[in-house]
Amino acid sequence: MKKIHFSRLLRLLLLASLALLCIVSIDAFLYEPFHPQVTYHSIELSKLPQSLDGLRIVHLSDLHYGQTIKDGYLQRVVCTVNALHPDIVVITGDMVPGYGVRTNPLSPKATARRITIERANRCGRIMGGLRANYGVYAVPGNHDERTMAADAVTNGFRAAKIVMLNNENVLLSIHGQHLWLAGTRSALAQNADFGKALAKVNPEEPVILLAHEPDVADRVANEYPFVDLQLSGHSHGGQVRLFGAEPVLPTLGRKYPMGLYQVGQMALYTTRGIGLVQPPMRLFCLPEISVLTLKSRTAPHPVRSEPR
């Protein structure tokens, strides 16, 4: 009699385990990767003028368009961002994956280059639908720069009127005040030139740096202390989080994998990104559309209140 009860218990445990595995698999492969979470954060910048208090930046990263990530999902992201009425939109790299392109064995390089260019142009056209009061800006990531067409993303996004900052900077004039946006190429691909990206920047005015890999923040804070805020992606938050930790993180994305940090005098925000790499799953780590509201240390009142 005891053996019969024990075998029933084992069967129940097995069925419960299979049911749990099925639920987790559906969540990880079919639900979480395609349901981005809009997160809200306030970031105080000491040099931000009072008239720019409440300036809203929407931060996207790691689109990885072309494999698991398709047109419909990116279009939903664009609609969500536009509904937030951002002042500025920034995209911190890895728009097109640099791996997994099916190639013609007779001419693999030529085929890979053609597919990469097609993906980059299509991704650029979709993201060109983004709307922001003071523009949309982007930098390349390591995947973009390690494709068979390293210039494809830059060309595709610029054709869509998105400003690509490849070791460059731009001065924004907003409400009569200045805000600098600088952007580097990928440090992991060994193409980042921080000196060039920050050349001629006025250190007395607020400076925001777009850099794909978050762990360069230590160098930036040490060598360029006038940078007020660094925005990065790259890590995907690990894609899988177990017991509050990320089991697998990429090089230059391990120290600051997700969220808001203070690195010296500089703030750093690392977004979880909206795409994914292989395996195509997320677990307890939703994709993220980050809404960053800049606060002036000298402003008596916030110009905008955060959504509740």
**Which runs of at least 5 residues are low in confidence (pLDDT < 50)?**
302-308
Secondary-structure element string? HEEHEHEHHEEEHEHEEEE
Strands in their spatial order, largest beta sheet: 1-12-2-3-4-5
Assigned CATH class of the largest domain: Alpha Beta
| DSSP strand content | 15-25%
CATH topology of the largest domain: Purple Acid Phosphatase, chain A, domain 2
Q: What is the tally of beta strands?
A: 12
The amount of helix comes to 25-40%
What number of domains?
2
**Radius of gyration (Å):** 21 Å
Average pLDDT value? 90
Number of helices: 7
Q: Write the CATH architecture name of the largest domain.
A: 4-Layer Sandwich
The helix-and-strand class reads alpha/beta
Distance between the amino and carboxyl termini = 58 Å
Task: Characterize the main sheet.
Answer: 6 strands, mixed
Shape: globular
The H-level CATH homologous superfamily of the largest domain, spelled out, is Metallo-dependent phosphatases
